[in-house]
Design a protein that fits this description.
By secondary structure, this protein is an alpha/beta fold. It has six helices and 19 strands. The radius of gyration is 21 Å and the shape is elongated. The mean pLDDT is 97. Bound molecules: flavin-adenine dinucleotide. Flavin-adenine dinucleotide binds next to helix 1, strand 2, strand 9 and helix 6. One of its GO terms (cellular component) is cytosol.
């Protein structure tokens, strides 16, 4: 059996595996796709101590670092279920099952997409999902934020300090964000809020040059010229397979304490799939390291051999 079995091969999972292997204990990683969201990222400018890197390059370094240690990497394998116990059973979609004394869940999350023409095509060419990551790239330019919940309104307030103008589009007839955020938003001079606005298309040439939306009251189609679109309609944790196994928040995030412990003893979690706020690479790595040290602590207190 593994001492530590990590599920997920993004920054959180890679950090967890390295920290575990450095304790000289039997460590494995099962990942559907090693690298996780970082594989889909173009420029990265906020991974501290590295001025600029690109997703695939960072993933290659992660892989290289993991390979320095005795880590059993099982890539392109999806976990279908976890059965907790003294020895947890980690069931793979291919029918195989792995046994582990401790499990670290680091399955990440994915941004909910608008699914409109142009969105995929211009992803990374004006269509963005993370204001903390990509906001500064639009300095002095015009952007839209799609989504009027807390994350959309926070993004619009954040971006308004960097870009020249923000248009926030909300599908419903009013914003869903907390009142205090709305108050702040409406106080900003360079923000326009459009409600009853359904984004229908992202337009561009080599990069984004505009957005088309349907005014849901008049039924009219309207166009806005802009350089960037931040989609803020939800972040979906990859935790469906854990329903009924570990406690999840109402957003589907794995509930963890300050040590990365889940509701099930011996099962830890880290990164974007958890309740820890601010979904960022540097945070996921720190959380992965932390969950791994907690797993080790659990092992020295519970296992006899
Ligand atoms: P992930 O990176 O999502 O990794 C999850 C891992 O779990 C993957 O290996 C996946 O295949 C695996 N997995 C999922 N389900 C299963 C399963 N059932 N069985 C087995 N394996 C499974 N952050 C920054 O700090 N700076 C940036 O500039 C930046 N830009 C971004 C740009 C884009 C386009 C996106 C999408 C994200 C960006 N982020 C950025 C956010 C950052 O990528 C995430 O915060 C970070 O990758 C989270 O790491 P993680 O290890 O928790 O999860």
């Amino acid at each position: 059996a593994f001492d530590v079995l990590v599920v997920g091969g993004g920054p959180a999972g890679a950090a967890a595996a390295i920290y575990a292997a450095r304790k000289g204990i039997r460590t494995g990683i099962v990942a559907e796709r090693f690298g996780g969201q970082v594989m889909d990222t173009l420029g990265i400018e906020n991974f501290i101590s590295v001025n600029y890197t690109e997703g695939p390059k960072l993933v290659a370094s992660l892989e290289e670092h993991v390979k320095q240690y005795e880590v059993d990497v099982m890539n392109l394998q999806r976990v279908a279920a976890i059965v907790p116990g003294d020895l947890a059973e980690v069931k793979l979609e291919n029918g195989a099952a792995l046994k582990a004394k401790t499990v670290i869940l680091a399955t990440g999350a994915r941004w909910r997409e608008m699914n409109v023409p142009g969105e995929k095509e211009y992803r990374g060419k004006g269509v963005a999902y993370c204001p903390h990551c990509d906001g500064p790239l639009f300095k002095g330019k015009r952007v839209a934020v799609v989504g009027g919940g807390n994350s959309g309104v926070e993004a619009a307030i954040d971006l308004a300090g960097v870009v020249s103008h923000v248009t926030l589009l909300e599908f419903a007839d009013k914003l869903r964000a907390d009142a205090v955020l709305q108050k702040k938003l409406f106080s900003l001079p360079n923000v326009t809020v459009l409600t009853n606005a359904q984004t229908t298309e992202v337009t561009g040439t080599d990069k984004v040059n505009g957005l088309v939306y349907k005014d849901r009251v008049s039924g009219e189609s309207k166009r806005i010229d802009l350089e960037g679109i931040f989609v803020q309609i939800g972040l979906l944790p990859n935790t469906d397979f854990l329903k009924g196994t570990v406690e999840l928040s109402k957003f589907g995030e794995i509930v963890v304490d300050a040590k990365g412990q889940t509701s099930v003893p011996g099962v830890f979690a880290a990164g974007d799939c958890t309740t820890v706020p601010y979904k960022q690479i540097i945070i996921a790595m720190g959380e992965g390291a932390k969950a791994s040290l907690s797993a080790f602590d659990h092992l020295i207190r519970t296992s006899v051999e």
